[in-house]
Fold this protein.
Amino acid sequence: MTTHPDFGTTLFLGACDVVALVRRKGLPACIAGIAARIEADTRRWNDFDKSARVASHSADGVIELMPIADATQFAFKYVNGHPKNTRAGLPTVMAFGVLADVSTGAPRLVAELTLATAIRTAAMSALAARVLARAGSRTMALIGNGAQSEFQALAFRDLVGIRELRLFDTDPAASAKLVANLAGQGFETVRVCASIAEAVRGADIVTTATADKANATIVTPEMIEPGMHLNAVGGDCPGKTELHPGVLGMAAVFVEYEPQTRIEGDLQQMPADFAVTEFWRVLAGHAPGRRSADQVTIFDSVGFALEDYSALGFLLAAALELGLGQAIDLVARADDPKNLFGLLHAEAPARAMRRRRHALPVG
Ligand SMILES: NC(=O)c1ccc[n+]([C@@H]2O[C@H](COP(=O)([O-])OP(=O)(O)OC[C@H]3O[C@@H](n4cnc5c(N)ncnc54)[C@H](O)[C@@H]3O)[C@@H](O)[C@H]2O)c1
């Protein structure tokens, strides 16, 4: 582990810490910083030990664990997806994650990742669009105006140059919230549309970030115009899709990690031999991206562990720079590591643990 200076301690970044971190650094800097890390980490794709995430499904949603490691750091994220949660006042998506030292297994960072998930998802989407969408794209349809939507809008403003937004959500209050939050954010137009078709018409880029545990058909083939780029964010687990299969059939489809997207993405609707390209291959120059101005491209986003590895690294570096977070005694450590039992004997262990906690630097 290279980033945390104090061997043996774990830094905890709770929700308040992460909010403070993003406010102090500024959201655009966080989007740019996480995007830069995702790009750099994606370029060294083969350094990572990768696997599709482990998912536990229920009637109302999914809870997932997302592990990944390179030679020095192991990361995992816990994340859920429960589309009906908002009716009960809970977010659809909630997350936290861990960074650990590969050489010792010691956990270095435990961090709230709900906010960082929105930032890293938007950063990944915009990074893919910067490579795959037509040059000069300025107009984006944004379908699904919930928790992810502001982050998507701002990442596309900064990384792609989107200046006009057309919004649609089945919940008008969600669109009104998005309009209010984007006021003064540098968009030339932010227009709420009466239908998905109206929002999509003439757009350079179409982002779908809806939440419904169903095979929805948010975008259908007759809506597609030559040269469009689709950023499909909300179809991210079995039985939860947004694109009509005919849309996938008419496009070049790019994915994060194919074994995971085959199960979770809009791609789940297509035959096993339907050709896709992993995005890292385009970044690394191993595969072409868009082949012509008329080609329709799709980034079938599901969210891959590498993006959380990159986000956790960003949070840790920023927290240390800003002096945020608390050192915690997450794991029990006896003075004599072979005498774990000794911690159970009154005086000594309590004193040892307390002493260690006081010795930890904050931030
Ligand atoms: N790919 C990834 O990496 C990634 C990361 C985070 C979230 N997600 C997914 O993105 C989606 C959005 O997440 P969120 O946190 O913004 O959820 P959210 O519940 O806050 O917002 C979803 C919005 O979609 C709207 N909606 C639902 N059905 C619709 C329809 N048919 N047409 C138009 N709008 C519709 C809802 O009214 C709501 O406003 C979820 O499905 C989530 O699982 C994906």
